Amino acid sequence: MNRVVHPIEEESFRRLRARLDTSHFPPLSRAVVERVIHSAADLDYAADLVMDEGELEKAHAALHAGAPVVVDVEMVAAGITRRETVCRLKDARSAPGMTRSAHAIRLAYEDVGPGALWVIGCAPTALEELLKLDASPALVIGLPVGFVGAAESKAALRESGLPAVSNVSEKGGSAVAAAALNALLYHPVPKLEETS
Asked: Is 38 an active-site residue?
């Protein structure tokens, strides 16, 4: 089913492209950069985001083949409107040495197993917990926000070698994390004749 784009969104992207040349990015990276910038009205994300086009291509294929999508908080889930997500935060409990967000990641992994797309936009401890698991993700969108642990958890994600979308700075959040996943959801799936 084709997505109907509202005229306000079309105009917003036109203005974004008038202010920032994104034509040098490969297709999926460009889609992520533009949708994240659009969600935050923050052009600095063009230089702050870190991703690999080959990893995005594999994640895009996995997503469109039905791989599960796990989110750290309901605010991220609310931003992903075209796909069901798994969020176990309501069921999670904090314990000594483990935040509620970290416990929710453990519970979600028990539900989905390897091969999921993980979208973390709020809690650095959720991202830190994911990195402790042998989750074998299709992709980790690690864009938690905050002054404590956010930049460090994203640096650890990049150092892990897992396929990822992250950013260098402390900024991030639910809206930008959902936007990065939506970029992959909205990007067309190549037709068979285009890939051969």
From this structure: yes
Q: What is the CA radius of gyration of the chain?
A: 16
- Segment 25-59, tens digit of pLDDT: 999 999 999 999 999 999 999 999 999 999 999 99
Residue with tokens 């991703």, as numbered in its chain: 51
| DSSP per position, 74-140 | HHHHHH--SS--B--GGG---BTTB-HHHHHHHHHHHHH-TT-EEEE-S-HHHHHHHHHS----SEE
Q: Are 121 and 172 in contact (CB under 8 A)?
A: yes
Q: Is the pLDDT of residue 196 over 50?
A: no
Q: Bigger pLDDT: 5 or 145? A: 145
Alpha-carbon separation of residue 88 from 70, 103, 110, 126, 193 (angstroms):
9, 8, 10, 11, 40
The position carrying tokens 């994640």 is 59
Q: What are phi and psi of 26, to 5 degrees?
A: -65, 165
Catalytic one among 6, 24, 38, 64? Answer: 38
To the question of pTM greater than 0.85 for the whole model, the response is yes
Tell me, what DSSP letter sits at residue 70? E
